Amino acid sequence: MINEEFDAFNSTIELLLRIAPSVKNTTSCMEVLELFHFDNKAIVFPIVNEDEIPVGLITRSEITELFSRLYAKELRGKDPISTIMNDSPVIVDRKSSIEDVAKIVVDAGMHHMVSGFIISDNKRYFGMSNGHDLLSEVTTRKQKHLFNLAHFDQLTGLPNR
Question: Which of these, 86, 118, 84, 124, lies nearest to 104 by C-alpha position?
Fold first, then answer.
């Protein structure tokens, strides 16, 4: 019973929050490419406007693929990142429940499981999370629920085995 209360308290997406640096939508594509080269663990950068409101995402694979082409640096390098970013990211409020976010991400498409989703606070950028962490948390919660169903009486809460 206490575990269920704890889970209800910690069931917001804030539990999965990862602090990731954001990039302004006016930053050049070459500067963003350099950020990916500098941080070899970064998979995605959230793109925000001048008010810190999330407007898109750019993944390492997208920008690397674009700039691996001949003359891409010369043609697109100085363009703002907003010209090539994914402008339809999944953005959720930090107080959203994990179950709601899981449904939103699945409905939005499986590519969001890889690129992740943006967490906002009062519409401003707050952090990121990814599909792997979300899936892991949902799986853990389901396993706990099934364990409780198998080992405890649902009416009294007493062990039944």
Answer: 118
- Cα 13 from Cα 128, distance rounded (Å): 10
What is the Cβ-side half-sphere exposure of residue 112, based on CA atoms within 13 angstroms? 21
Per-residue pLDDT of 83-130, as tens digits, reads 999 999 999 999 999 999 999 998 998 888 888 999 999 999 999 999
Please state at what angle helix 98-108 crosses helix 131-151, rounded to 10 degrees: 130
- Using DSSP bridges, classify how beta strands 91-93 and 23-24 pair: parallel, antiparallel or unpaired: unpaired
Q: Which tokens go with 157?
A: 């809460």
E strands within the chain? 23-24, 44-48, 54-59, 91-93, 117-121, 124-129
